């Protein structure tokens, strides 16, 4: 079923690979595993990924640009609608479509909805059955049969790969399937670039990740982070120091006390965890100041969403 009309043997290959699927199926975890670097936020909470991000994998014969994007879900506000539109845009733009499914959670109506969305698209398509680390050998054998039935019913898939993004099992097989389905092309990014995400966005995502990991289940949906300023200066000892200020936006005043915590303990914890990771990212000491601000109904505010880049 491999399409080879525009795939030249021995030529350098390149292209964009869209990782799509329901929320929380492990798309970001898979990209982090491929890059051997925690570039993207990973969490079991819905809407963790909110942006379209290019992540670059290099090897001597190919450059694969994995496009991480939000997961498909039923939108409940304007933000949700825009996130779904981002996914539709990725499907149209990429050279290879890879659909990631959570085997441990079971293949359900949401997955088949995604299959239907890509059914008529021209690009090569790969089905990734993720989280086999959570299954026993007998379950995996049965699922191998199930994956075969899926590929027969949806025979547009060029490959079906069972893997674990968490442990790395069979991830090399997925990479080989991806590169096999790429066409000959140029190197789009230098070898030392692993993402095109701007520094201020990476810092904002680090802070948001710590909020997602430490807040109550309902709060991450209504939290957003912006970097207000980055000032490069020096410590009293002459060492490089970055002074960074970020605003944490929430929808309800009642949430402000939760994020700040008793005597400021939660905000202090978020700041300390974020500061350590930002220092690892930029390679020098960081002074981080976090502000909590109320912007009522920001997830339904067209002007604010456009300003934040949610223009799907």
- What string gives the helices and strands in order? EHEEHEHEHEHEHEEHHEH
Radius of gyration, Cα only, in angstroms?
Answer: 21 Å
Q: Low-confidence runs (pLDDT<50, min 5 residues)?
A: 1-7, 41-49
Query: CATH homologous superfamily of the largest domain - what is it?
Result: P-loop containing nucleotide triphosphate hydrolases
Structural domain count: 2
CATH class of the largest domain: Alpha Beta
Q: Work out the helicity level.
A: 25-40%
Structural class: alpha/beta
What's the structural blueprint in terms of helices and strands?
Layout: E1 13-20, H1 27-35, E2 53-59, E3 62-68, H2 78-93, E4 96-102, H3 109-118, E5 125-130, H4 137-153, E6 159-162, H5 171-180, E7 183-184, H6 199-214, E8 223-234, E9 240-250, H7 253-260, H8 265-282, E10 285-294, H9 302-307
Parallel strand pairs: 1-3, 1-4, 4-5, 5-6, 9-10
Antiparallel strand pairs: 1-7, 2-3, 8-9
Helix pairs in contact: 6-8
Please, could you describe this protein's structure?
It is a single chain. With 312 residues, the protein is an alpha/beta fold. It has 2 domains: 13-184, P-loop containing nucleotide triphosphate hydrolases (Rossmann fold, 3-Layer(aba) Sandwich); 199-307, GMP Synthetase, Chain A, domain 3, CATH 3.30.300. The protein has 9 helices and 10 strands. The chain has helices at residues 27-35, 78-93, 109-118, 137-153, 171-180, 199-214, 253-260, 265-282, 302-307, and strands at 13-20, 53-59, 62-68, 96-102, 125-130, 159-162, 183-184, 223-234, 240-250, 285-294. The strands form 2 sheets. Strands 1, 2, 3, 4, 5, 6 and 7 form a 7-stranded mixed sheet that branches. Strands 8-9-10 form a 3-stranded mixed sheet. α6 runs antiparallel to α8 (265-282). It is globular.
């Amino acid at each position: 079923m491999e399409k080879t009309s525009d795939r030249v043997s021995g030529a350098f290959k390149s292209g964009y690979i869209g990782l799509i699927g329901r929320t929380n199926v492990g798309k970001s975890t898979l990209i982090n595993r491929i890059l051997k670097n925690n570039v993207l936020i990973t969490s079991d909470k819905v809407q963790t990924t909110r942006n379209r991000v290019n992540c670059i994998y290099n090897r001597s014969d190919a450059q694969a640009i994995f496009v991480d994007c939000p997961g498909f879900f039923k939108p409940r506000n304007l933000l949700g609608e825009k996130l779904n539109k981002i996914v539709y845009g990725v499907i149209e733009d990429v050279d290879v479509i890879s659909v990631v499914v959570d085997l441990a959670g079971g293949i359900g109506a949401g997955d088949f909805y995604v299959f239907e969305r890509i059914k008529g698209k021209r690009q090569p398509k790969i089905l990734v059955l993720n989280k086999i680390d959570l299954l026993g050998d007998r379950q995996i054998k049965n699922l191998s049969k199930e994956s075969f039935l899926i590929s027969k019913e949806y025979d547009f898939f060029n490959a079906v790969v069972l893997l674990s993004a968490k442990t790395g099992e069979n991830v090399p097989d997925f990479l080989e399937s991806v590169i096999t389905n790429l066409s000959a092309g140029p190197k789009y990014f230098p070898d030392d670039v692993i993402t095109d995400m701007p520094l201020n966005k990476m810092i904002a995502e680090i802070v948001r990740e710590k909020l997602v990991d430490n807040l109550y289940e309902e709060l991450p949906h209504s939290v957003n982070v912006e970097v207000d300023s980055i000032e490069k200066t020096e410590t009293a000892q002459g060492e490089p120091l970055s002074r960074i200020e970020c605003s944490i936006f929430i929808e309800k005043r009642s949430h402000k006390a939760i994020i700040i915590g008793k005597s400021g303990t939660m905000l202090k914890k978020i700041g300390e965890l974020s500061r350590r990771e930002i220092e690892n990212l930029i390679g020098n000491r960081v002074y981080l100041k976090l502000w909590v601000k109320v912007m009522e109904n920001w997830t339904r505010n067209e002007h604010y969403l456009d300003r934040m880049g949610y223009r799907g």
